[in-house]
Amino acid sequence: GECSSGRLLEVDPKGEVVKEVRLLPEGKSGGHSFMRNARKLPNGNYLVAHYGLEVVKEYDLEGKMVWEVSARGGPHSVCRLADGNTLIACGDRSRMQRVFEVDRAGKTVWEVKGDEIPGIQLFFMTGLQRLPDGNTVMSNWVGHGKFGKAPHLIEVTRDKKVVWTFNDHKTMRTISSVHVLDVPGDPLKGEVMH
Fold this sequence. Notes:
single chain, mainly beta, four-stranded antiparallel beta sheet, 14 strands
């Protein structure tokens, strides 16, 4: 996803653009916060986190919107789960930092919000990964003046219990994405959702 121009590009292993989908008219800029994360779905459609618009949209191969859900807080990362639900990590717009899961009707079926985890403040949720056991690993980006004030990574259960956190503010400032490597499955086949 190319943010300001609002383009989705598919690039082959040689670096050649093999498909371009425009979400904005040519020459029009969506600005710095138009989109953050875009992913191609197994059905060929594209799932896009429109951070500044505070919405997640699914587009067909021609760029026509076929599904959308409000994502107050500004979606940064998004993935479609095997059961058809969508998992979304939201930033700090509207003070709605959270990670939540919606069904195809857009109904929230699971959510962890900014101050729901005792002793941990969520500041800017940027990355996520749903594990095979149903737990969720989340990246808590601690920029915008929040450096050192919360864990970088947090794994939570479905009932929002903390499994582990990663807090190394001496060797790194921020983490914006996460991919747990010892999870079985092939991410290129959509078996690992991050």
